[in-house]
Amino acid sequence: MGSERTNLLKFLLFSGSVLVAPVLFSGGYLMNVLVFVGINTMLAVALNLLLGYAGQISLGQAAFFGLGAYISGVATATYGLNPWAAMGCAAAIVGLIAFAIGFPILKLKGHYLAMATLGFGIIVYIAFNETVELTGGPSGLTGIPYFTAGTVQFDSDMKNYYLIWGFALMTILLSVNLVNSRIGRALRAIHDSEVAARVMGVNARLLKVQIFTLSAVISSVAGSLYAHTMTFISPASFGFNFSVELLTMVVIGGLGSVYGSFLGAALLTLLPEFLRTFQDYDIVAYGLLLILMTMYMPGGLVRIPSFVSPILAKIKAGVGKHA
Amino acid sequence: MVKKTADGLILLATLLILSTGTVFAAPPIKIGGLFSVTGPASFLGEPERNTAQMVADQINAAGGIKGRKVELIAYDTQGDATKAVQAATRLVKEGVVAIIGPSTTGDSMAVIPVVERAKIPLISCAAGIKITEPVKPWVFKTAQNDYLAVARIYEDLVQRKMTRVALLTVSDSFGSSGREQLKALASRYKITIVSDDTYGPKDTDMTPQLTKIRSGQAQALICWGTNPGPAIVTRNARQLSLKIPLYMSHGVSSKKFIALAGDASEGIVLPSGRVLVADLLPKSDKQKKSLLAFVQEYQKRFKAEGDHFGGHAWDAMMLLKGAMERGGATPAAIRAQLEKTRNFAGIGGVFNFSPTDHSGLTKDAFVLVQVKGKDWVLVK
User: Are residues B158 and B256 in the same domain?
Assistant: First the structure.
């Protein structure tokens, strides 16, 4: 966790590298991929708050992401609302939905909670597909406008990069502060033992629903950002597969680590791009890497330093002997 | 140790210089491909990717285009709009002169903003009417519009003096597009839709919908979907001894459908591209030469039946080849020449592009076929 000072330093360092990253990649198609890394980071951090800190699994995150995207998309493309206003509306509606379903759903534990959230995800996915008049059905919704601020239209990868990473950094800052507060400690207490947490005076039930709602709202904002940068959405992007992909990001990155979620999101978004050189075998290489990582780095990517340092120490000791 | 590495590097560098120095031929023309090779729409993407590669190899074997080889850079979209956009952006940055695909309407709609901005011609292999209507300067497509298939079915209904139909469509992009066109064209042919049901892409039993249809007033049933759904509908209809004639869409026009539906498929009528009945066509048919060339080569290379999905990619590659031979291998020249393509007899039909029509086909692109004795026959 570290003190407040190191936290701030870490965040500033991270923000700095986000700010200068485009200088390294400018012009490359990687800019486009980095935009998606930003969106996935928001989603992974949101899920990590729920899964890594509060210990509550959700297999329906793609549904909140999709609801954000579709509410934003329909409100702007069909009803001509301003994209910023649409994003706010979407977040509010999704927040209400999450709050309402949170109470019954979060009474469940373990596999049952996984199934309930999975069910919710599937219902929403079917709704996107079947309400053709509203959502455009399986062939998607077109004509979603870009964000605009004054005379600036966010229509290039570079502009969207800064827009989306602005939101992603806010999400990270919020999450880091949250998990280091009393709420964060209460969440970890629920994670370890809900009964013990309640005995200690934590309103576990309400807190779980609140964090579930927060996670949904962040996902919804990410969805709106996605809709207005892609300007086209179709249900296939918000299915069960994507929920699982998010879960993988969080686990590979490191449960209970905000920056770990970024690492997981970055790895899983960038990896397929690098593996394209393997042509048809990219999926195999991808799967193999994931298996190896979970086997040898069970703590996730954030634990790499602690994984590498003993080896480094050994090498150092070896070098010392020869000298 | 250090010296050895340095020696190795020098050797490597020398080799590199030698290898690049000796090859002085013109650089290959890069063509991008976006196909959903994996995921739910892999039945489209796989034959398309295979065919595109096959045509590229054929062009190279014949000496390339004006002496330049073509290089197909094909990426998998997994039927996911996000991945399609990433892959398209990457293709643009890799300097392709044109892009073939994507396989699905959703993916195609998603990449249109990318190619329009980059000014790279796109020849989509998806059928959705939204892709080329309204016309977008850089976007073309080879798959037949669904309304052409609908028109064929409705004409047959009119001929058989039937006016009341029941619809049963799958809830994916293929089915919803078909459903839209079936409803839109009904009034023009004075046909009433008495019931309108859907089924999910993964459903395994359609008896409830069919029971409802059986008790209704329909004189014919039109089912719109891709394998395996329609085969299940066919079997269920036989089990319920549904007496009314059953029409299918071009989504199942392959031998696989007959294999899946078995005896129950006997007598089923559907509109299909000519590829299915290539050997039955009269010699005078304009497309016969292209069709046989495609089917035979595909059979030889992949030991599988060349279907009309692969045909979409064949048409796209050939249209591109023609455009580049006439106008040169720059995106702008390709676009201009594509738009001037007239009377190109491909797999999907005879293409006539114009500034106001970027899909280029008429309802002659479809013939009506019927299942007889576990094979297809032409309906006269």
Answer: yes
Identify whether residues B118 and B160 lie together within a single domain. Answer: no
CB contact under 8 Å between A139 and B38, yes or no, is no
Contact B109 A138 (CB under 8 A): no
Is B229 inside any structural domain?
yes
Confidence of residue B14 (pLDDT cuts 50, 70, 90): low
Q: Is A157 on the interface with B (CB under 8 A)?
A: yes
CB-based contact, B53 to chain A, within 8 Å: no
Q: Is residue A99 part of a domain?
A: yes
Of all residues in chain B, the one with the smallest CA distance to A140 is B106
* Per-residue pLDDT at B380 exceeds 90: no
How far is the C-alpha of B191 from the C-alpha of B287, rounded, in Å?
Answer: 32
Kindly report the nearest CA distance between residue B260 and chain A, in angstroms: 25
Residues of B within 8 A of A276 (CB-CB) are 75, 90
B165 and B126 housed in the same domain: no
Rg (CA), chain B: 23
Chain B residues within 8 A of A130 when measuring between CB atoms: 171, 198
Letter string b/e over residues B148-187, b meaning 16 or more CB atoms within 10 A of that residue's CB? bbbbbbbebbeeeebebbbbbbbbbbbbbbbbbbbeebbe
User: With an 8 Å Cβ cutoff, are B172 and A138 in contact?
Assistant: yes
| pLDDT for residue B54 is more than 80 | yes
Does the pLDDT value for residue B291 go beyond 80? Answer: yes
Assigned domain for A109 exists: yes
Average pLDDT for B32-50: 91
Mean pLDDT, residues B319-327 = 94
Q: Are residues B267 and B346 in the same domain?
A: no
**Cα angle B47, B63, B346; round to 5:** 40
Q: Does residue A93 lie within any of the structural domains? A: yes
Residues B186, B261 within the same domain: yes
Kindly state whether residue B378 falls inside one of the protein's structural domains. Answer: no
SS (H, E, C) B285-314: CCCHHHHHHHHHHHHHHHCCCCCHHHHHHH
What residues in B contact A234, CB-CB < 8 Å? 81, 106, 109-110, 173
B86 touches chain A (CB under 8 A): yes
Residues 6+ apart with CB under 8 A from B275: B291, B294, B295, B306, B307, B308, B311, B347
Instruction: State the sign of the Cα–Cα–Cα–Cα dihedral B252, B253, B256, B257.
Output: positive
Look up the CATH number of the domain holding residue B193: 3.40.50.2300
- Of the candidates B62, B276, B198, the one whose C-alpha atom is nearest the C-alpha of residue A138 is B198
Is A61:A47 a contact under the CB 8 Å cutoff?
yes
Residue-wise pLDDT for B156-208, tens only, equals: 999 999 999 999 999 888 888 899 899 999 999 999 999 999 999 889 999 99
Q: Please, which pLDDT band fits residue B9 given cuts at 50, 70 and 90?
A: low
Is it the case that residue B16 has pLDDT exceeding 70? no
Instruction: Note whether B175 and B257 are same-domain residues.
Output: yes
Of the residues A133, A146, A234, A319, the best mutation for testing chain B's interface (the one with the most B CB atoms within 10 Å of its CB) is A234
Domain range spanning residue B98? 29-144+288-362
Q: Would the pLDDT of A175 be above 80?
A: yes
* Cβ <8 Å between B90 and A29: yes
> Phi and psi (nearest 5°) for B349?
160, -165
Burial status of residue A14 (CB atoms within 10 A of its CB: 0-12, 13-18, 19 or more): middle
Write the DSSP assignment of A267-319 as a string of letters: HHHHHHHHHGGGGGGHHHHHHHHHHHHHHH-TT-GGGHHHHHHHHHHHHHHHH
Q: Which residues of B touch A226 (CB under 8 A)?
A: 82
- A242 closest CA partner among A74, A125, A116: A125
- Indicate the number of domains in chain A: 1
User: Which tokens sit at B60?
Assistant: 């190279």
